[in-house]
Amino acid sequence: MNRPVVCIVGRPNVGKSTLFNRIVGRRIAITEDNPGVTRDRIYAEAEWLNKYFNLIDTGGLEPESEEIIPINIRQQAEIAIDTADVILFVVDGLDGVTSTDEDIANILRKSGKEVLLVCNKIDSHKTPDEIFEFYELGMGSPIIISAEQGLGIGDLLDEVIKHFPEHKDTEYDDELVRVAVIGKPNVGKSSLINNILGEERVIVTDIPGTTRDAIDTYFTYGEDKYVFIDTAGLRRKRSIYENVERYSVVRTLTAVDRSDICVLMIDGTEGVSEQDTKIAGYAHENGKGIIIAVNKWDLMEKETNTHLNFEKDIRNKLGFISYAPIVFISAKTGRRVDKLFQLLKVVDNNNNLRVSTGVLNDIINEAVLLNQPPSDKGVRLKIYYGTQIAVRPPKFLIFINKRQLMHFSYRRYLENQIRKYFGFDGVPIQFEFKEKGE
């Protein structure tokens, strides 16, 4: 899980985000012709020749600018550079060397990292004369590509994987269940990891934000293999001042991205906060299994129905993850941590559950008979056929007559009917709708 990190840097509008999307294989970064569109670091898992790595896109660097947004972009990029194993320095092959390119080259030389000079926007196989002046940057031979056309990307990635450190892990283990422990600062995430391991593996203090990086810990529970990712607590944006803390947020979100299941820890002495809602929303939107762990339950003064009232409050405030099971624990004493592992097993099984096409269509047909699909202007929604196309999370492809007729409420109804038969506790269910003939 100690993946190599590849960072893309360069001045504005040289095609960094287009290259990022090309390598990842899907549109994640926003790409426009306007400089400065990418302000924050964007990250994703990428793969080339069965070697997996983490790819970071950064905003365009303007080292001499004193405006607030370019300054923030520079700070974000500097943090990404500091954590990278390989840096892709992207330049515009048609513009030639600019003073900003020279400034960035100076920054990269000081980093001491492996840097590959990438000349973008060369849409033909003929090398233009402008390319040769890039040797002046002292970054070695430029690698010629067109991110827009996809030219030269394979050669670039061949070179990238040659520079991965030997101690970094580039393989993907399907048997490992990747669990990200997420939540606000000082909610007890590190204490939970230490209790599971039975040792002081992670520093624990009462000072919020002690954990700055995402820390991976392998653990075997019975026959099940896990890697727990302890993460820095997410703060509200206005509470983030230091560069290190800015990167902690990125690492937390990255941990969610590369996890299978997220354990959302909530402070039992404080209840559900707005920040808990945002963290849970990010995990939900990214299709992660979710377990809600209410920590510090040993510190709570118990009254009649305290447990039920707290659970009701969670369901009210986190209604969009009503599928997530709730466990009340004490990370400090270890109370009910065994129950957490039982839930991890259940959620992992559900995350990988496949419903046969025949059974799925029986459920859909019964649902249609019980509750007729919506109609608009005399045209009624027709559902022709459904099949499961993915796991982690379970995803269903449904063929219909008209996509506009599939209201959110009816989609939720179909989801509830599927859950009625198969549960899918702890995991979101995703749908893709296609009109007949698409």
- CATH class categorisation of the largest domain: Alpha Beta
What structural class do the secondary elements suggest?
alpha/beta
Strand line-up across the major sheet: 2-3-1-4-5-6
The CATH architecture classification of the largest domain is: 3-Layer(aba) Sandwich
Instruction: Estimate what percentage of residues fall within beta strands.
Output: 15-25%
Descriptive notes:
The chain is of the alpha/beta class and 438 residues long. It folds into 3 domains: 5-162, 3-Layer(aba) Sandwich (Rossmann fold); 177-351, Rossmann fold (3-Layer(aba) Sandwich); 357-435, K homology (KH) domain (GMP Synthetase, Chain A, domain 3), CATH 3.30.300.20. 32% of the residues lie in helices and 22% in strands. It contains 11 helices and 17 strands. It has helices at 16-24, 68-83, 99-111, 153-162, 189-197, 243-257, 274-285, 306-317, 337-351, 357-370, 408-422, and strands at residues 5-9, 42-48, 51-57, 86-92, 114-120, 143-144, 177-183, 215-221, 224-230, 261-267, 289-295, 326-328, 375-376, 379-380, 383-390, 395-400, 430-435. The protein has a 6-stranded mixed beta sheet, with helices on both faces. Strands 8-9-7-10-11-12 form a 6-stranded mixed beta sheet, with helices on both faces. It has a 3-stranded mixed beta sheet with strand order 15-16-17. It is globular. GTP 1 binds at residues 10-17, 57-61, 120-123. GTP 2 binds at residues 183-190, 230-234, 295-298. Keywords: GTP-binding, Hydrolase, Nucleotide-binding, Repeat, Ribosome biogenesis. Belongs to the TRAFAC class TrmE-Era-EngA-EngB-Septin-like GTPase superfamily. EngA (Der) GTPase family.
